[in-house]
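Hey, resending since the last one bounced:
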Amino acid sequence: MRFIILLSLCAQLLIACNFTDLRSNPGADGAINLDARRATAPAATALPGEIVSAADAEYRLLSNIYERASPSVVNIEAAVLAEDGSAGDTRRGSGFVYDRQGHIITNAHLVNAVDAITVTLQSAQVYSAQMLALDSFSDLAVLKLSAAPERLTPLRIGESATVKVGQRGIVIGNPFGLSSSMATGIISGLGRTLPSAELGLGGIAPGFDNPSIIQIDAIINPGNSGGPLLNSQGLVIGITTAIRSDNGLFQGIGFAVPADTMRRVIPDLIKQGRVDYSWMGISVMREDGGYSVAGLSEALGLPVERGVLLRGVAEGSPAYRAGLRGGDAIVEIRGEEVCAGGDLIVAVNGYHFQNLADLVTYLVQQTRPDDEVELLVIRDRQTLEIPVTLASRALESGRMLDCRQAQ
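The structure tokens again:
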């Protein structure tokens, strides 16, 4: 008890003498300021409105694009009936309103060989749709539904030729059936090609690649196929078509058919129910793995590093009739056999293209069967201007004249 009383007295003396520990900061007169020691950090205050507004500008842009574009994006269910007529498999995807006449744009692989198609607008109205026409090469299809024009809000188709890597890419669709979902990212690659097998079309249009495909990193999952790819102005610059994946789910790389291909294909599908592509009848070695003209120029002593080196020419084709020549000698380069010695095409109608994908893009988007184009050709280091009258891809081609016949 005596010890407790002594401790109490000591505490009272310390308080009376305004004592504190040696870590306290003295005032200007050397006195200890207990109020300063007890003071807490100032409370956080909101940032000025202009800073918040600037930081939120991008999100306001995205919200505005969503509000304007999402009413045009539709949900598509394509049913395949079983042999006994009962419900079978159902494919689910997206599409968007093309015009007020009831035309809906989507992917060909979504609605190819199905028995019934149902389209649901964002406003929840449900319509039975007719498959008007599809084009397996471009993976584009046009549906037709009977809806009042005031219920339909078309999206504007932009131009994809000016799209650059790094630009914003906005996807609106129905992943996993979750309607009107938005995903954003950037354009991560241009000039890709997709063989028909990668589009899941079962080998339709064999031997022809869908060119100038846009690569995006915005998240695309099952159900997004057929939805629009938009730019920062809300214009359609592509239509989502496929993903690169090992398990069917998005893994960082998605693809979209470019708007310029849509502008070429969709009007023909609506007017005549098909698309007739021009055909030249040439064969070129696949350019991936370093076997483009740029990759072969040093080994073969080519005078340029861009264009396409002809491996072969189809007998009876426009290229054959124009006098173009395929290769005549097999050369091994980096472990691969290359058919060398053929004509080197570097330009078409004054357009100097980089590679085969560029040439095919030009032919698909800028020409039609029976058009005459002028090729700039390098043969034995001489420059030639050779006119070629294009034909239709639907024509049967003859055997390919290349190094196999030259040997």
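The chain has ten helices and 23 strands.

Sorry for the duplicate.
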